[in-house]
Amino acid sequence: MHRLLRTFTALAAFAALGLPAGCSSDSASGAKEEAAVRGPATGTEGPSRGAFWVDPDSPAARQVQQWEEQGRARDAEALKRISEQPTAVWPAGDDPAPDIAQATRGAAREGRTAVLVAYNIPHRDCGQHSAGGAGSAGHYRNWVNEFAAAIGDAPALVVLEPDAVPHIVDGCTPAEYHADRYQLLSEAIQRLKRQPKVKVYLDAGNPGWISDAGKLTEPLRKAGVAEADGFSLNVSNFQSDGAIKAYGRTLSATVGGKHFVMDTSRNGRGPLAGDRQDAWCNPPGRGLGTPPTDRTGDPLVDAVLWIKRPGDSDGPCRGGPAAGQWWPDYALGLARNAKAA
Fold first, then answer.
1. Residue 93: its pLDDT value, please?
2. Half-sphere exposure of 59 (CA within 13 A, CB side)
3. Residues labelled as active-site residues
4. What would the mean pLDDT of 143-147 be, rounded to a whole number?
């Protein structure tokens, strides 16, 4: 997925859901639903104890098992820093229902919340590493309907269409597609919000991409952010926690005080220094960031999440596999370079 192809030169989380998914929680579902009414936590109740669902069969979990069987005990132990944390589910292909149903059912059984990414907008990624998406507006509407229906009445946090709005702002998406994209995003928010326990966050890029947050204000409004629960920042990128929060506060003030969630999956060492155009794509030396939590200590930050699954390739750069494919060596590097707790 494209991240800062032409803009990296500017370089130098979710008690609201309070409903389920994470590492370890013994809370009853009734208490979780009560938390959903109270709103996002402010950090005064201690660290998260597992709001979000951990996939027991993730690529990282399978890799840990394989390395243990091969006698690579130290590597397996390091990789548990990924496998034991909740990461988002990105359903692939034309039928999102199986992946969504598996995640939401698994989360619901444990009294946790599934984190999901809807990433299938037509003309996705401007024809770059993650090019594709639905073949038409009609196909996309059907896909979103199947996505939402598969959630049912389970609790879920949905990050909606990473890059879609920022690619309008940076000019990568041709002007003739803008009106349709705004309409599809707005409709997607409305459809997803019909599910009773879904929170929706419309993606707004990151501070190293569109450096002037104000340029996103009107596009986000046209895309329906007023009907969403907020916006997401830093998906699949490496900007620091401080930079993300400052950017999010600035942007929030221009869109009615909307809250936001932030991706910290690979930002433990910050962005790669320099102004290379491919600094967003499998940059070396990066590390895991702040672990996922809904207890953020910031009233505007609903959740800190690992939206990009650590270890999934950004694309065929620096020896990586295709975008979205598991890359165990890169995952191990992220784990070994993890931000200190």
1. 83
2. 18
3. 125, 163, 314
4. 98
